[in-house]
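Table S2 (continued). Query chain:
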Amino acid sequence: MQDNTAIHKARALYYNLFANFFVLPKDMNGYLALRGLIDTLKQNPLDETSGKALEDLYTLLDPTTNNEVMQEFDDMFHNPTTAKVRQTASYYDEGVESGKKRLEMVNFVAKTKIRRNEKEFYEYEDSVGFIFSLLAELSDLIARGENNYENTAHCIFSEILNGFVDEFAAEVYEHPSSKIYKELMVVLHSFIAFERLFLDVAKPQPKEKIEKVSCDSEELSEEEIARRARNKELRKQGPKEEEACPIDVAYDVETEL
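Corresponding output:
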């Protein structure tokens, strides 16, 4: 059997890279550690294109302050005066936040020893920041010999991340405020291509654009009301006994993300 320990360690580093750009470090020590990670990854990039993007990314990140990356993050994801990029799988799947993809992620997380730290992490379980953080942790655990998590990591990638990451990356890349994140998306593009090859997961076919439902809408269509009612019933029922993508058994000791 092939030993993929080195590959899983590298996967953990890349997922950690992306996680730290969507759950920004709270202090300069964390920010400088992120720059150090980029410096490490650019020594042995996945390909020439991502190598140049890592070099540019390292140059763009000011070693004296994290103000620029924090401002760019806010302009793209939180500023009400600019076009806001949505970050959840549910939004790209159904056009609304907190849909069935969030429920699927909650079920995946519930069957592992990892838990969301709700005091420090306010985004939904199907947000890119949480998905990247979780996959970084799982990849590290696999590299340490906990191979029972291989199926969970594979399922999260194939059932959750794979379906929306291309559209999400395109919106970030094309955003008028994107400069630092534009380079990050080049790296993400190469990494996702690698993951699909390594995990033997096909790139999804382009799907028709669905109408996004604003959280501020006063009136909901009958279809949206019915969809929310179905999701409410699904949440009451909990996970199905037989799942298309089975997940692992929970450990007694829990780790918070």
